[in-house]
């Protein structure tokens, strides 16, 4: 017994195939009497087949959609357009021309997609990230019925089988509005995406698109970025490894943008910016060896099949000596401040206690010869001084006579 989910998926697939086959079986020939008839297109292989009642020496096919037109040679009443064909959701014209000795014959068929106008999805876009993950998103058609549900099918190349999305992204109403893919392989050929819709009461138009997968890849930044500086020459060697991708392993496929700013001004103008083609190292001459620097890098495709759009910036890498110098100065400043504070606290404490006098005793001054004299008027003091002086002189004279 088939599981309900598998049955629903199978039903959806059969509905899709039925709608596409009905749409691509050409019944509106512009030249109904042509010996070329029963035009049928296999959309997944992009092969146009037909039948003919005559033999031809040469035949070819053409497809025109909007401004796009291409022609391919036929073989055994079959033309293969491959991945170079245009999207068909806006309609297309197919023609077959054949030549033999009796003349030239052709048949032209115009295909117009079936379904309600405005019911196909809008704003379809995809992005590849983290090497092998892919997200595709879209919006429901503006005129799609409320019960419309969408289903995505895709081929990595025309040689692969068509696959339905395994992990849908849904909105609040349960409608599919995107798909997540894992283990995506980027191929040289274009990938083909088709989003079909179903509704209970109406036929929904499909949307299809060809995408070169490498062009939608969001490149990861370079890895293992290192900076080694010569403190004497002031030169720094920047080294890195190319971004990881799963379809190229050559350094020449990339170009790199190097951006350097001072650490203390991360939002300011870069002091150094450079773009380098290929390689895995770059030499930088520092203009200021006493400043801490922030370096970041990103990559883009230069040659090969690598996305030409700049990828994500790397995490900033620091180099320089400013942090060491600043730490030493900060430590010295803290030690000086603590020492000064302790000295002030000690002085204040000692002044409030007797330890100050014990540590620093006062030195006595010289004894005053006139200490204890009564406070008299200046004239009396002068007379006494003169009397003392005269007596001293007499003592000195008597001493000289004795000798």
CATH class placement of the largest domain: Mainly Beta
Q: Total helix count?
A: 4
Strands of the largest sheet, in order across it? 4-3-6-7
Alpha-carbon Rg, integer: 48 Å
| Overall tally of domains | 3
Keywords: Glycoprotein, Membrane, Receptor, Signal, Transmembrane, Transmembrane helix
Membrane topology: Single-pass type I membrane protein
Signal peptide: 1-23
InterPro entries: FN3_sf (IPR036116), Ig-like_fold (IPR013783), IL3Ra_N (IPR040907), Short_hematopoietin_rcpt_2_CS (IPR003532), TypeI_recpt_CBD (IPR015321)
What labels would you give this structure?
4 helices, alpha+beta, Immunoglobulin-like, Short_hematopoietin_rcpt_2_CS, Ig-like_fold, IL3Ra_N, transmembrane, membrane, disordered N terminus, 403 residues
Structural summary, described in words:
The protein is an alpha+beta fold. The protein folds into 3 domains: 4-111, Sandwich (Immunoglobulin-like); 122-216, Immunoglobulin-like (Sandwich), CATH 2.60.40; 223-323, Immunoglobulin-like (Sandwich). It is built from 4 helices and 22 strands. It has helices spanning 4-24, 322-352, 355-359, 378-402, and strands at 36-42, 47-52, 58-65, 68-73, 78-80, 92-100, 103-111, 122-129, 133-139, 149-155, 163-164, 167-170, 176-181, 191-198, 207-211, 223-230, 235-241, 254-262, 272-277, 281-285, 293-301, 317-319. The strands form 6 sheets. The chain has a 4-stranded antiparallel beta sheet, with no helix packed on it. The protein starts with a helix and ends with a helix. 21% of the residues are buried.
């Amino acid at each position: 017994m088939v599981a309900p989910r598998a049955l629903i998926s199978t039903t959806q697939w059969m509905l899709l195939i039925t709608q596409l086959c009905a749409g691509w079986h050409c019944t509106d020939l512009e030249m109904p009497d042509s010996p070329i008839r029963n035009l049928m297109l296999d959309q997944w292989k992009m092969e146009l087949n037909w039948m003919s009642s005559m033999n031809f020496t040469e035949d070819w096919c053409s497809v025109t959609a909007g401004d796009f037109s291409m022609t391919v040679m036929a073989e055994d009443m079959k033309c293969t357009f491959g991945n170079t064909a245009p999207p068909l959701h806006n309609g297309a014209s197919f023609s077959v021309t054949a030549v033999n000795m009796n003349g030239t014959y052709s048949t032209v068929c115009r295909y117009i997609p079936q379904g309600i106008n405005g019911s196909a999805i809008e704003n379809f876009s995809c992005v590849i990230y983290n090497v092998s993950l892919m997200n595709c998103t879209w919006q429901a058609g503006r005129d799609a019925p409320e019960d419309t549900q969408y289903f995505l099918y895709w081929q990595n190349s025309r040689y692969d089988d068509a696959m339905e999305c395994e992990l849908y992204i849904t909105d609040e109403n349960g409608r599919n509005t995107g798909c997540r893919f894992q283990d995506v392989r980027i191929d040289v050929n274009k990938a083909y995406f088709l989003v079909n819709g179903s509704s209970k009461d109406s036929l929904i138009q499909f949307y299809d698109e060809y995408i070169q997968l490498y062009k939608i890849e969001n490149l990861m930044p370079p890895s293992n970025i290192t900076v080694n500086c010569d403190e004497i020459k002031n030169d720094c060697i920047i080294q890195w490894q190319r971004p990881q991708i799963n379809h190229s392993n050559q350094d020449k496929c990339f170009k790199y943008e190097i951006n350097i700013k001072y650490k203390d001004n991360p939002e300011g103008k870069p002091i150094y910016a450079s773009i380098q083609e290929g390689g895995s190292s770059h030499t930088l001459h520092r203009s200021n060896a006493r400043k801490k620097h922030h370096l970041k890098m990103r990559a883009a495709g230069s040659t090969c099949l690598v996305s030409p759009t700049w990828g994500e910036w790397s995490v900033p890498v620091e180099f320089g000596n400013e942090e060491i110098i600043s730490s030493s100065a900060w430590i010295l400043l803290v030690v000086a401040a603590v020492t000064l504070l302790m000295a002030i606290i000690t002085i204040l404490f000692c002044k409030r206690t007797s330890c100050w006098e014990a540590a620093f005793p006062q030195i006595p001054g010289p004894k005053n010869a006139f200490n204890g004299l009564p406070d008299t008027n200046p004239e009396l003091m002068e007379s006494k001084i003169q009397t003392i002086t005269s007596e001293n002189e007499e003592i000195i004279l008597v001493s000289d006579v004795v000798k």
